[in-house]
Design brief:
The structure is a homodimer.
Chain A lengths: L1 E5 L14 E5 L4 H10 L4 E4 L3 H10 L5 E6 L2 E2 L14 H4 L3 E5 L3 H6 L6 E5 L4 H11 L3 E5 L8 H17 L5 E2 L1 H13 L3 H7 L1 H8 L3 H7 L8 E5 L2 E5 L2
Parallel strand pairs in A: 1-8, 1-9, 2-7, 2-8, 3-6, 4-6
Antiparallel strand pairs in A: 4-5, 10-11
Helix pairs in contact in A: 5-6, 6-7, 8-9
């Protein structure tokens, strides 16, 4: 069994998504927010690339949808929700469909459309995600959102904890790529202070500057839920492994 | 001072080469071989992209040049030398100009032509390279050759030892990017068994399968020389810091 990690949506490793189970990871914050939204009972999250696409889709959907968008960490103009998990409380989103566009996270789902299965993973649901992936019996590709195609520490540490859980749960012999070994190693380095890592990485510092420091405490919460956002017909919906 | 690492020649970080001092690293094997060639007294190494370009240039050069080429680890057809440092002994290359094309390493130099200064770095000359870079007073970008745009463990560990040396030598306050921190961390992980790391990484295993295991012992040799291959008018020539 192959276990590989792409360090961004532009990593050539994304081209090997076909036939594999893919976990998309954007710790700060898209996949954390998506996990939280489904944990709090929203009907589903539709990740889209552009704001105009999001607006058109939100209008078109039967029964309406909440429009959520982020650009450069802030709530995008004209959106009801941004990309902060604190905005996704149960009263606001219960049973609602959410159309979400973010700078890196949601675009990453478009980079792996060839995959056999696609889920969203964050610290919040990492053990459940590992179980779900193991149950597929497929080779696994973890795709970090990164930032404009660049390496982000927090997503690779997120990949590392997922690999750690996969190796604990499964008795399969996984062949780890160089990038998968690196992710595992980085999780080992930072596992005792995940929040410190989130506060000290490049994008974490930027998020703090923008006033979202409280979000990082949510992002660092390991196994808050056993909900796995699974892509079904273009929508991420809640499943349990 | 900025200290950044691009994990491959396709990493968007390469776009920030302008105005910086760039160290290209292809541990297995292009920059190891280039360092060895200059250490053994060749006149210079001209890295080029394609085999046909290499052949045309080798013919055109006054006084001739040795044609060196690698594709898929093997010596390329029609070339006098491959990409194994064992082929670059003093008797064969002393005072000769070498035109070299390899699958990933030599192409990486073309990804950073905007840089203020460009050198080749390997374990063989890492401390000298760190001194040379420090002397420029410039922001530093380390560019891993990687493999077809993908992450290679050995190049990132090579970046990590270079960062370790830069931080020891210089009293400047470097701002490390997430990728630079990762490289440093990986060097710390593997520093006591660099040869084992080279034998166990993806490309190292491939090199062993192809019959070049002896090359890895050369690639793992830290500070064999104080020669730094520096790009001057399209040629890498020997300098000392």
């Amino acid at each position: 069994m192959i276990l590989d990690v792409a360090f961004s949506r532009l990593d050539p490793a994304c081209r090997s998504a076909s036939g594999r189970a893919v976990a998309v990871i954007d710790v700060i914050r898209a996949t954390t927010t998506i996990t939280m939204a489904l944990h709090h009972g929203c009907a589903g999250v539709i990740p889209v690339r552009t704001l105009s696409e999001a607006m058109a889709l939100a209008r078109r959907l039967d029964g309406g949808a909440l429009l959520a968008g982020e650009r450069n960490a802030e709530k995008a103009k004209g959106c009801e929700l941004g990309n902060s998990p604190t905005e996704y409380g149960r009263p606001r989103i219960k049973d609602k469909m959410i159309v979400l566009t973010t700078t890196n996270g949601t675009r990453t789902f478009q980079a792996v459309t060839e995959a056999q299965a696609i889920i969203a993973c964050s610290f919040l649901n990492v053990t459940a995600a590992a179980r779900w992936l193991t149950n597929t019996g497929l080779d696994i590709l973890i795709v970090c959102a990164g930032r404009q195609g660049r390496f982000c520490l927090e997503d690779v540490v997120g990949s590392g904890i997922l690999i750690d859980r996969l190796l604990s749960i499964s008795d399969r012999a996984y062949m780890l790529s160089d990038s998968a070994r690196t992710a595992r190693q980085l999780f080992a380095t930072y596992q005792n202070d995940l929040l410190g890592m989130l506060r000290d990485c490049e994008w974490g510092k930027e998020i703090i500057r923008k006033g979202f420091e409280a979000d990082l405490e949510i992002c660092a919460h390991v196994d808050l839920t056993d909900i796995v956002p699974v892509m079904r017909e273009g929508r991420l919906v809640a499943e349990r492994p």
